[in-house]
Amino acid sequence: EYQIGDAMALRLKELFYANFADDYKTKATIAAVYRQYGYLLDPHTAVAKCVCDMYQEASGEESPLVIVSTASPFKFVQDVYSALAGREEDHAFTAAYKLADMTGQPIPKQILALENAEKRFTQSVHKDDMGQAVLQMISNREE
């Protein structure tokens, strides 16, 4: 835990801007950037773009901003596909092929290699049961 005084908190608010983008805004940003620039954003980069836009609007700042893209959009293919297509696709590789056809962007070879790769992990845990599952895994390793 870190504690700072009021003066430091005020100074930080002067220096930094923070915000967020929900799923709707993130997908809308992916679609808008693709329509306007033909550039396919991953969701993390879309959040950065959306927040930068909010910052410029709130501050009136007009200086150029640089956003460093963080991942391949094919890493989050179902989300990116649904942002552009306006509908969900349950199967990741179907979404990947559809996204590639829709955008003309090739599926990265590392992702294509996963389609026929041997499954190393088969257990699935619901998010509500995650804590108990982690404790169970830890107790199994200690034996």
Key terms:
56% helix; flat; 143 residues; mainly alpha; 7 helices; 0% strand
Overview of this protein structure:
The protein contains 7 helices and no strands. It has 143 residues and is mainly alpha-helical. The chain is flat. The longest helix is centred in the middle third of the chain and has 17 residues, at 43-59.
Secondary-structure blueprint:
Elements: H1 6-15, H2 23-37, H3 43-59, H4 77-85, H5 92-103, H6 109-112, H7 130-142
Helix pairs in contact: 2-3, 2-4, 4-5
Rounded mean pLDDT score: 94
Using DSSP, what is the number of strands?
0
Q: What's the main sheet like?
A: none
Question: Based on the structure, what is the oligomeric state of the protein chains?
Answer: single chain
Beta-strand content bin: under 5%
